[in-house]
Design a protein that fits this description.
Chain lengths: ~450, ~450
């Protein structure tokens, strides 16, 4: 296939020229919207994997319906019978999970696993039984579980459309109680809502959406659609009314993109393509989601940390300069004239050389310090003023701790180090009012010996 | 199939090996599963058993063979990766655990599916074949070990069992502490993370060894169902391990027997053994839920029922005593039914029970106390009135509220407590309503 062929192919798919493509897009898109909505409720109810258990639990129902159909003289492959069977055992599986939860010793995860494996085991057993029946070409039944996205016909799409619209309508009508159920079960019960029935209803919605989805897109994709878009939308918003349409939109988007990729790429199963696109969307949301994304959290932390570093460095430099001035008995104006070797500052912090240089470079860009060569640094006038303010705050807090909290002078430095960044002007004002009397407005000296004195201080 | 009676043939050479492979698989899974269930990681077993697909596919493309050691390496790597990705999504993204598992395993499975389908030209490997192997075929593929022909699956699952057993014996203490109290474990210098990944690796190993031989669903079932059953029966980890392995073995044997015999009753030949084993495990679980001592349904419902009968019988005795005290004639079933709010049917049962112990005799449909019954009723009424005295003087309840609590407590009051009530309460011979307190019956059991 050359380039232009591929383009033509893509165009055909995107403009929905094939009957088949139209049906697949319509079917999976609608299914995505409904699973996205139901998935949000499941996620918030902390039952994300309920879809997993229920979709496995439908297999024995399909087989039983087939067996009953054959026993009554039919072919057994009546779609409505199979769906009814699937719904019956799916619901039974859901009820079994609710029932098992009543036992203190069986935890939720074990209940899910128990129902999933036992029901599916029963289904496998019945399948081998069906294979022995002369009429039973079980291949069709397996398709029921593993899906046949690519060969979706109008009838399937119509079925999906009607069921998904019912499910969506019910979910919207019961929005309020379902919301209460998800966020505060106890409160919902105290408001008179029948919590157990609501749980059962949510389960019934999952069953309904699962059985139509299963035969359309298969088991794994059904689970993925119920879990991934909901979890992805959680990164973007904290509000349920926004989360629901967002999750539905993300699910639909991954269905449409996945189906398109599958249609234009040879040998990529559409179910798998849809799941992988959904996972991709999830990853993007996880990193860049506005509400809980990793990137934003990381950025906030980084900004906070670098502002701490900046303040620490300015104060270190100020104290070293101050020490130098006092040792050499220089005048008050000389603070900006004294240069300090970088490695002397470095000794006061457990910072790497690279981190120190990066910080100094940033301070220089802000016009607070001047680098002289590679290893000498001194204040600019504005830098000195800023550092003086920071040092003043730090010492205020140290004195407060010593005077009023009885903290040992040797230990106040570390404690003040952590707190000083959080001191807002109001607190500084009241600290000043408390402590200022002792200094008569003078700039306070450090209440404890500075560390660098023992190390020989700043040498020129 | 033409036989009128359900018959079946048992071949040691076939069924023996199938059961042995099943036992090795169930025992390995049940050992690991106990820890998974305790750590609330049951669904991780299901997730890993799906997620190893890309690992299998990658190993398969590299070697072109389905029987290489590399398949195991690939599967274990992906198993640990699954577990790591789940943890990562959960902690970094603060996603609910179930959702994290769901995202990771469906994603990996889809990846594996694409790998397999894309490579389908050159290789013969389909997901159905990888995940739903058949235990019935295990005896066909054999190795020669020490002069005996042993099915490959039995050798493989046997080694897996050995590995799991060794790991659990070596790290028993660490696994135990990290399962019950991860914080304590970390403070003791035992890494709960390391144990988590050890478990994940072992689950992946067990899953992949079981896939082609016995099928995916059996591993998942045996990882969860026997340990969950054992958890209903015991509180000790060592007992739980032993019980869950035993349950696994019982389910395996009975499941295979069931799968080859039961369908013959309806004229079919044998069905899926793995399915049968799963169902057998399920039946054992349901049986445990219903019949387990202390925690079972029958036990707790039965205990409540017996208490109900005892309390109602005692109420009947006390009522008869009070009627006698007031010189009224013995009540009929109708009067009793009205005054005690009991149905006629249950009163027949109580009448039968009480006359069996010769507490009550019924003359011309009037219920009367016997001498023995009077003595028993005397204790009850004495307890009741002593409590009323106590509540009136010590607790200070108003007179009209004395009856209710006393009515409840009289059923649980023995002679020892009556003595204490006499010591602490006011020493009177009448209760607050002015009724005499009957004397203590002679010391008797």
């Amino acid at each position: 296939m050359n380039g232009s062929d591929i383009l033509v192919q893509i165009l055909r798919v995107i403009t929905l020229q094939d009957y088949n493509t139209r049906m697949v897009m319509l079917g999976t898109g609608l299914l995505g919207a409904a699973t996205g909505v139901i998935g949000v409720f499941l996620l918030l109810r902390k039952r994300a994997l309920l879809g997993d258990a229920i979709s496995h639990a439908t297999l024995p129902g399909v087989c039983l319906a087939f067996l009953i159909g054959v026993a009554n003289g039919g072919s057994g492959k009546s779609m409505s019978m199979l769906l009814l069977g699937a719904a019956a055992t799916g619901l039974l599986g859901g009820l079994a999970i609710l029932g098992l939860r009543q036992f203190r010793r069986i935890k939720e995860d074990a209940a899910l696993g128990i129902v999933l494996s036992i029901f599916f085991g029963l289904g496998i057993l019945l399948l081998t039984l069906i294979q022995q029946i002369p009429e039973g070409h079980a291949a069709g039944l397996e398709g029921f579980i593993y899906g046949k996205t690519a060969s979706m016909i109008a009838e399937d799409a119509m079925l999906i459309a009607s069921v998904t619209s019912c499910v969506l309508l019910l979910a919207l009508l019961l929005y309020r109680p379902l919301q209460l159920l998800c966020f505060d079960e106890g409160y919902a019960a105290s408001q008179g809502w029948p919590v157990l029935w609501l749980d059962g209803l949510l389960m019934a919605l999952v069953v309904a959406i699962t059985i139509v989805g299963l035969q359309a897109v298969g088991l794994i994709m059904m689970i993925a659609l119920l879990v991934i878009p909901a979890a992805a939308s959680r990164f973007w918003t904290h509000q349920l009314p926004k989360m629901l349409p967002l999750s539905a939109a993300l699910a639909t988007l991954s269905c449409l993109v996945g189906a398109t990729i599958s249609a234009i790429t040879p040998r990529v199963p559409s179910g798998a393509a849809i799941v992988l696109i959904a996972v991709g969307i999830f990853l993007v949301s996880m990193f860049f989601g506005k509400a809980r994304g990793i990137y934003w959290n990381w950025l906030r932390n980084w900004k906070l940390k670098s502002s701490y570093d900046r303040e620490h460095l300015l104060r270190d430099l100020y104290e070293l300069v101050e020490l130098e001035r006092d040792q050499k008995k220089l005048g008050k104006q000389a603070l900006t004239d004294i240069s300090i070797p970088v490695d002397v500052i470095e000794k006061r912090r457990l910072w790497s050389h690279g981190r120190m240089l990066r910080l100094l470079y940033r301070l220089q860009l802000q016009g607070l310090v001047l680098m002289q060569g590679k290893d000498l640094v001194r204040f600019t006038a504005s830098g000195c003023k800023e550092a003086e303010r920071l040092t003043y705050d730090h010492r205020l807090w140290e004195l407060y701790l010593m005077t009023y909290a009885d903290v040992d002078p040797m230990r106040v430095d570390r404690s003040a180090d952590d707190t000083e960044h959080a001191l807002d002007p109001e607190i500084i004002g009241s600290l000043k009012a408390i402590i200022d009397k002792e200094w008569n407005g003078e700039f306070p000296p450090s209440p404890h010996p500075l560390e660098s004195t023992e190390q020989g201080g700043a040498k020129r | 199939m033409n036989d009128a009676l359900p018959t079946f043939q048992w071949y040691w050479d076939l069924d023996g090996w199938i059961i042995l492979a099943g036992i090795f698989c169930s025992a390995s899974a049940a050992l690991l599963g106990s820890f998974l269930v305790l750590r609330r990681m049951s669904m991780l077993g299901d997730a890993i058993s799906h997620a190893v697909l890309p690992g299998l596919a990658a190993a398969f493309f590299l070697t072109g063979s389905r029987q290489s050691g590399l398949m195991f390496v690939g599967a274990i790597l992906v198993g640990v990766l699954t577990s790591w990705l789940t943890q990562w999504t959960r902690q970094i993204g603060k996603v609910d655990e179930g959702a994290a598992i769901g995202v990771v395993f469906t994603g990996l499975f889809a990846l594996g599916l694409v790998m397999i389908v894309r490579g389908a030209d050159s290789v013969d490997l389909d997901p159905g074949c990888v995940l739903y192997g058949s235990i019935e075929l295990t005896p066909l593929d054999r190795y020669r070990v020490a002069g005996i022909e042993i099915p490959r699956a039995v050798v493989m699952l046997g080694s897996v069992l050995l590995i799991n057993l060794t790991a659990i014996v070596l790290f028993y203490r660490q696994l135990k502490i990290t399962s019950f109290d991860p914080a304590l474990a970390d403070s003791l210098g035992i890494s709960s993370r390391a144990m988590h990944y050890l478990l994940a690796a072992l689950v992946a190993l067990t899953a992949v060894a079981s896939f082609e031989s016995v099928g995916n669903i059996l591993v998942v079932a045996m990882l969860i169902v026997p340990p969950a059953t054992a958890a209903l029966l015991t509180d000790r980890l060592s007992t739980m391990l032993a019980v869950s392995v035993t349950i696994g073995i019982v389910a395996t044997v009975s499941g295979h027997l069931g799968a080859i015999t039961v369908p013959r009753i309806w004229g079919y030949s044998s069905v899926s053994t793995a399915g049968g084993m799963t169902i057998a495990a399920g039946i054992l679980l349901v049986g445990t839920i219903v019949f387990a001592p202390r925690t079972g349904l029958v036990w707790s419902v039965g205990k409540r029922w017996l208490w109900g009968i005892r309390v109602n019988c005692e109420d009947v005795l006390a009522l008869l005593y009070r009627k006698e005290e007031r010189g009224e004639p013995g009540p009929t079933v109708n009067t009793l039914s009205k005054q005690l709010l009991l149905s006629h049917r249950s009163l027949w049962l109580y009448r039968w029970l009480l006359s069996l112990r010769s507490y009550v005799r019924v003359e011309k449909s009037e219920w009367k106390l016997t001498e023995r019954g009077r003595m028993a009723a005397q204790d009850l009424v004495r307890s009741h009135r002593l409590w009323e005295n106590y509540f009136a003087s010590e607790v200070g309840l108003p007179t009209e509220q004395l009856h209710q609590p006393a009515e409840r407590l009289e059923h649980f009051t023995g002679s020892q407590i009556r003595k204490q009530l006499l010591e602490h309460g006011p020493s009177q011979d009448v209760d607050p309503h002015g009724k005499p307190i009957p004397p203590e019956r002679n010391p008797s059991p």
